[in-house]
Write a structure and sequence with these properties.
The protein is α+β, with helices and mostly antiparallel strands and about 160 residues long. It has helices at about 1-15, 45, 50-70, 80-105, 115-130, and strands at about 20-30, 35-40, 75-80, 110, 130-135, 145-150. It has two domains: about 1-80, K homology (KH) domain (GMP Synthetase, Chain A, domain 3), CATH 3.30.300.20; about 85-150, R3H-like domain (Ribosomal Protein S8, Chain: A, domain 1), CATH 3.30.1370. It has five helices and six strands. Helix 1 (about 1-15) packs across helix 3 and helix 4 packs across helix 5. It is elongated.
Length: about 160
């Protein structure tokens, strides 16, 4: 079972890093997508500054897991509810920028975000079902996301019907 393969690899990996963890849980989210939740007192060692270590660890684990499982698997690694906290901060930031766009009627170019974060932002804004939308411009590492306000254009009925 893939969950067992993932759990064994993750346990061995963090044990060799001398990371003390009290709980490790692996759950299948979707086809070939797995959620790894780790509870540890060593979270600062894993996450580090601006989640740099966490991203690197996730990439290394993905390589090890894909090699052992012999299939392409995507993983999400959660350490002490850090991703949830990070997502909450992201959504609060986006709410603030949405308010700015509504007040100023100006598009707002967001700073660089990962593809995962851009998808979360797109989904959040589209779920609002308001006059605010997102658009992406440029490609690869230069990809930027914009928060925009739809223009409510006034139409004129030249036949003077339904005005």
């Amino acid at each position: 079972m893939v969950e067992d393969i993932i759990k064994n690899i993750v346990e061995e990996f963090f044990s060799k890093m001398l990371v003390d963890f009290s709980n490790l849980d692996v759950k299948k989210e979707l086809e070939n997508i797995y959620y790894i939740k780790l509870e540890t007192t060593d979270s600062s060692l894993i996450i580090w500054t601006r989640w740099k270590n966490l991203d690197d660890i996730k990439n290394i684990l993905k390589i090890l897991i894909n090699r052992k499982a012999e299939e392409n698997i995507i993983i999400h690694v959660e350490v002490n509810d850090y991703l949830k906290s990070k997502d909450d901060k992201l959504i609060n930031y986006i709410k603030n920028k949405i308010d700015y766009v509504k007040e100023t009627n100006k598009d707002f170019r967001l700073p660089f975000f990962s593809a995962y974060e851009r998808k979360k932002i797109h989904s959040y804004v589209s779920d609002l079902k308001s006059d605010i939308y997102t658009k992406s411009e440029w490609e690869w590492k230069d990809r930027r996301l914009f928060i925009c306000k739809k223009n409510n254009k006034m139409t004129i009925d030249l036949d003077w019907i339904d005005i």
